[in-house]
Amino acid sequence: MILAKIEELKKVLTNEYIIVEKMVTMSIDMLIGKNSQQLNNIMKHEEEVNSSEIDIEEFCTSLIALYQPEAKNLRTILMILKINNDLERIADHAVTIAKSTSFLIEFPHHHSALPLLAEIAQEAEKMLSDSIRSFMDADASLAIEVCENDNRVDTLNEKIFRYVIENITPERVAAETAFHINRISQSFERIGDLSTNIAEDTIFMAEGTIIKHHQKE
Fold it and tell me: Would you tell me which of 16, 115, 128, 162 could form a disulfide with 52, CB atoms 3.0–4.6 Å apart?
């Protein structure tokens, strides 16, 4: 019975992930395609994610109270509870990206930063997709790949920060524009971090091994 309930819980989490992934994809489409009309849709999806987060928390709590699961079943429920929180935070970052992108669309003086922003967006989006797939399939090897790719996103974020610092002049990038470029980059970097959290939770769920404090800084 508990296994069937956990599978049901996983389906609810998958539905939440689908909405979050859509939000991230839409924010990237805004950034690359300069389509400010996506912002309202992203905000509506955020409300769905907030509601789903509460539902999943209640589902996890009830399973623990009713079935008092142990070992891997308990680890799975606890990891779903953590991933649920991470997904909600990723949704928040998608909103941040969309809002800053709206500013950049209105004041389009960031064209030279777009290739770097597009690159970090692509890497972060892939980390998110792979992290959830690794969890659903209990694929520890894929989860390890996600953790290893986090360094690539960190490096790109640092590269964009340097770009902003080097180009923040009246003739090139205005201060407010620079702020939004950096905020978008940092949001993608945080999506990468949160995807890494999900991957680490997957490894713990599948193998009972904690790797968080063994990752390279």
Answer: 16
The CATH number of residue 67's host domain is 1.20.58.220
Q: Could you give the number of structural domains in the chain?
A: 1
- pLDDT tens sequence across 82-109: 999 999 999 999 999 999 999 888 876 6
* DSSP secondary structure, 107-151, as one string: S---GGGHHHHHHHHHHHHHHHHHHHHHHHTT-HHHHHHHHHHHH
State how far the alpha carbon of 187 is from the alpha carbons of 33, 151, 206, in Å.
18, 15, 29
Domain range for residue 176? 2-214
pLDDT tens-digit series, residues 157-195: 999 999 988 887 776 678 888 899 999 999 999 999 999
